[in-house]
Amino acid sequence: MTVYNRLLLELSNRQYFAEVEYNQLLIENGLAGTDTYDKATMQRKLLLTVLDILRMLGNDTDNLQKLADGETGFTTSQLYSQLEKRIAKVEKQIAEIPLDSNEQYSDVYMLFTRKRC
Fold it and tell me: Which domain of life is it from (predicted)?
């Protein structure tokens, strides 16, 4: 599965924006849409791309109004509320992904160094 296809899967195969815009966002987050998706190394960057897309969607009131038509039964404010919940969920998911298995966290850090300016 390509990174682009995995991105669409994360977005429930909804085409909110053009493929060119999706690929640009992938590039901005260090991914290429044509590469083969590897969850171990690419999940954080893919979710950051999803987060960018959701925020762009929330900023586009015209698009929200299109989504809040009679078919869905949602108002624009309800859609925005659901979008904010989804953004919070993705942010939580990103926070749960470990940065690097080699990193060790400590409460102690160096305040002073010997190097003088």
Answer: Bacteria
